[in-house]
Amino acid sequence: MDQDILYHLALGSESHDLQEMFGDVKFVCMGGTPKRMENFAHFIMNEIGYKLPAGTQLQDISAYSYRYSMYKVGPVLCVSHGMGTPSVSILMHEMIKLMYHAKCKDPVFIRIGTCGGVGVEGGTVIITEDALDGQLRNSHEFTILGETIHRPAKLDKKLARELKALATADDPYDTIIGKTLCTNDFYEGQGRLDGAFCEFSENDKMAYLEKLRDNGVVNIEMESTIFAALTHHAGIKAAVVCVALLNRLNGDQVNAPKEVMHEWQQRPQILVARYIRKVLSHNGQLKSLFGHQGSIKSPRRFKLVQQESQAHE
């Protein structure tokens, strides 16, 4: 092909110098919403001592895609992935290709998110050991050319242990490792009684949640299997770190006050930042860092990529 256009990121292999822009990336941190990842970008900038050139500010590199947000903070790329496996799948394909074009060496992918706890109280940080689908299989189901294919949804267990080891006794909350259930929707797929439709009883729901707990499931979300399956298929070291917003054994509604929710959502970010600091410190890279926010090789191709991204809605 003439060039590889990453439609949903508003980037292209010929319109942008991807190696110049992203070649130094060591960590790709993903989360659901653009605002969460913008906040994480500012947070990690302070944590690793990254210094922007005078008169500049963090820039949403993928702003012209109108779909995902992307911020680069030295060796850390902060990207929003939207909600649910289809949205994550699109982003993951293009992020993996971006790492290839940029010639990144052994990047680590970490999903930072929220979830519902199963026998786990709100505010608990959960590191995924195994990602399970709705039938408790440690795989993700794809339909490709009309055929059903299962790919292992495996995460790096050594990385999970390294993250767990960075939790401290001073943390005013628990950090645990366990199995994560990934569902296809927020309501019926997660056994909620408060959706538009509900054709099962509260007893049915509780029996299901107890079954999950008996099988080692400690949380429920909607992205982990596709994230794990695609990173494993690509040979990329990856982890999922979430915070529980409620204990599903106690109800379906997320009732925590806004300020409490905000503080809870910072907890996975703190743990991931500790890991990034540790790795950079070990490699002698924890210092004031200066990075590039964008390199346009061809203004004409750059404009075409913008137009292509806007057309693929």
UniProtKB/TrEMBL annotation:
Residues 26-277 form the Nucleoside phosphorylase domain. GO terms for biological process: nucleotide catabolic process; uridine catabolic process. InterPro entries: Nucleoside_phosphorylase_d, Nucleoside_phosphorylase_sf, Uridine_phosphorylase_euk. Phosphate binds at residues 67, 111-114. Gene3D superfamilies: Nucleoside phosphorylase domain (3.40.50.1580). One of its GO terms (cellular component) is cytosol. It comes from Drosophila kikkawai (Fruit fly). It comes from the Eukaryota. The lineage of its organism: Eukaryota, Metazoa, Ecdysozoa, Arthropoda, Hexapoda. Substrate binds at residues 190, 192. Pfam families: PNP_UDP_1. This is Uridine phosphorylase 1 isoform X3. One of its GO terms (molecular function) is uridine phosphorylase activity.
